[in-house]
Amino acid sequence: MAKKSTIQFQLTFLFLILIFISCEEHKKEIQKRPNILFIMSDDHAYQAISAYSDKLLKTPNIDRIANEGMLFTNACVTNSICAPSRATILTGKHTHIHGKIDNIMSFDTTQVTFPQLFQEAGYETAMYGKLHFGNNPKGVDDFMILPGQGNYINPKFLTPDGDTTITGYVTDIITDLTINWLDQKRDPEKPFLMMYLHKAPHRAWWPSPEKFEEFSKKTFPEPETLFDDYENRGTAAKVAEMTISDEMLLSYDNKVLPEAIADLGIDDDPRNKRYFEGSEYSRINEEQMPLYQPILNSISDDFKSRWPSMSDREKTSWKYQRYMQDYLGCISSVDDNVGRVLDYLDESGLAENTIVVYTSDQGFYLGEHGWFDKRFIYDESFKTPLLIRWPNEIKPGTTNDEMVQNLDFAQTFLEAAQIEVPDDMQGESLLPLLKGDTTKWDREAVYYHYYEYPASHMVKRHYGIVTKEYKLAHFYYDVDEWELYDRKNDPHEMKNVYNDPEYATTVTKLHKELKEMRIKYKDSPELDKKYIDIYNSRN
Ligand code: SGN
Ligand code: CA
To answer: Does the beta carbon of 288 lie inside 6 Å of ligand 1?
Structure first.
């Protein structure tokens, strides 16, 4: 009897040891999985990253990600606007499937987002900064997010424990919070997913006081198409309300004090003064005002002395310079702060096994075609920056020119973390490309669909297909117009060649491919109509 119970005891003990060993092995496996640091800024044009072009600004820290990893030169979005892009990133689905067609439409929160899958799979997850996608992020163990668009100066954050307002400049604060989470708050036994999301450089562009001073003295080269007259383009480009000349507001955007405009007796846009007074300007505290006010005064002095004698062209050039000074000043802070986080990863020994991604929720016009803002399928808004570093897998200093999309992030991250990918995600994992294997990549075209119309900036609804060589787009709703651009021969997209007989075969071929693509991604004329009906019933 005694002998039997000793054997039983020994077997149980052995069993427990085996369970312990297997748990430890499992723990080690989990710990080996890569960390993911997803850095996204809001409205950061690839033209303003020196890894792409150093005409405007040097961004040595963001460039580091490409120098030590991979630069994607043809990354693009499925819908060039904030919340729909974020919903695509989180769900791995096109806009018409996840249903967040614009910034206002509600999101069906029963849908799976990739951070939830990371959390379930044993990752420690967090989201810091601008979400612009509801106020209760799913699948994160911790969050500190800006409500809605958030503020640049002394911003308020929503946290699991309630709201808090932090004094200072938003880009620095989000970074302080992120580094603090990485260093102090997370469980070091688990791999992490950190969504580090900047508000900058979203309109209305308010740099930190130091960058405001530094950048207000700089002059930037004008883009070739700043004075575009939209000849040879469709109606949509002609009627969009996003020109620097007419739509950019002198105070709200360009920081001319409303008094200076009144002093000159200018017939100002009625929104300008009201917007300016409700803007970040009203958030500057007593200690910060002496840092901002002298620069605001000098901008107004310059405006008052030069504006009255300027031609219309010179006025646009002046506004362009003010725009770039503030926009690029905001990005320079992002770059400095990205440098701080990369340094932290180095110092803490985390860099080797951490995938660092830098991207934006879409591109942006920096005066090209006379515009600011985004929304169009045309290149500056359709393309988005993408730089990825993963020392364990990516060969440093590599460039990739495949047409990858924000649609692909979820699947890429899941596959990298060895988490099963849900069948209904619509992207492709970028893992083979990251590992330098292009043989498995057979995507030759991408699909795009923009919906938010009629609305701010009045960019008409359109969908289209883009290949490396061509772009075919259909503008619909209150127009029915097709546009075709020859991307190789007309890189600035100045001539719609849809009706040019020389392109007839291309038009036929692309129509067929677009139709097939709409079927593949489950978009349809019925869905176009459904979203118009929902949109109109809401307004
Ligand atoms: C705000 C801006 C627009 C911008 C949208 C969407 N106007 O409405 O210029 O297009 O956000 O941007 S502002 O007067 O409020 O500055 S998005 O990035 O959030 O989609
Ligand atoms: Ca945006």
So the answer is: no
